[in-house]
Write a structure and sequence with these properties.
There is one protein chain. By secondary structure, the protein is an all-alpha fold. Helices cover 71% and strands 0% of the residues. It has eight helices and no strands. It is globular and about 30 Å long.
Amino acid sequence: MPRRVSVRKILVKEHQKALETLAHIGSKRAKVIINNSPSKFLHIIRTIAKFILDGTIPLDEHHIKKLKRHKSVIRAVANSRGRDTKKVVLQKGGSFFKSVISTILPLIPMIL
């Protein structure tokens, strides 16, 4: 019997290239992209934050150490809705994407 994969996991996998781009560009460009992004992409960012918190993405000790300073932002993003996600991510700026997204991106294939 094939393994069931949730729709959220498939959406994260589909937007992996866009997340990689955000992780490697400057904070000013990231803010422009976030401001002009559709709500579906913001939903992906919120989903990744939820995956981090609920343990869907398996984290090692060194991953946890990198993410520890951003735990309040990760919680705020996971609990936000719609435009609030955009506001939280934009207030934090590029450091959120540089550390959190770049830490999580190599782990995304493990969730499928």
